[in-house]
What does this fold into?
Amino acid sequence: AQTVTQSQPEMSVQEAETVTLSCTYDTSENNYYLFWYKQPPSRQMILVIRQEAYKQQNATENRFSVNFQKAAKSFSLKISDSQLGDTAMYFCAFMAYNDMRFGAGTRLTVKP
Amino acid sequence: EAGVAQSPRYKIIEKRQSVAFWCNPISGHATLYWYQQILGQGPKLLIQFQNNGVVDDSQLPKDRFSAERLKGVDSTLKIQPAKLEDSAVYLCASSLKRGGGLAGYEQYFGPGTRLTVT
It folds into this structure.
């Protein structure tokens, strides 16, 4: 069974600085997808960034980028130039054969 | 493009009562998911529909939970009778299709329904 581990329950960062959220997963599959979702206090889950396992190039979306290490089964999220609006829960998710598994989440607080 | 709609946003019931949640997915999305998110945890899949057929309900407590997706569009999730441990946020999500590359797998979430069982 696939499992997703986020080892940092809480993190904080100063506005305009950079922060990295960790995620590891366990799977025997070779083809899968990885996602980072953001869940602000309003509860709406918003897709931040996604990565296909067969692509070696790390995905980037504006201030958000990932460090995907397939051999190490690691998928970390880097947020550059942190903004107050980035304050939220961040969930790492793994999908194979349309079966999505989420990590327990990391609560990120951006401080002014 | 309208997002995933859910109602109600909040519901408070007593244990042993019944409750129903409604979800309207993004137009054209064939796959619909119901998740349970207990406070402090990530979402856990309860049931997945492909059009109006059930694809995966292995984690649905079938003695008290039921779900349907008539006509392959809207869906309802019901709990009867509710227990204290059912207190959670119930999230509905939809995706375009099962296959067809990464874009088909991306799930779009609704705002959720927060259920409190007292």
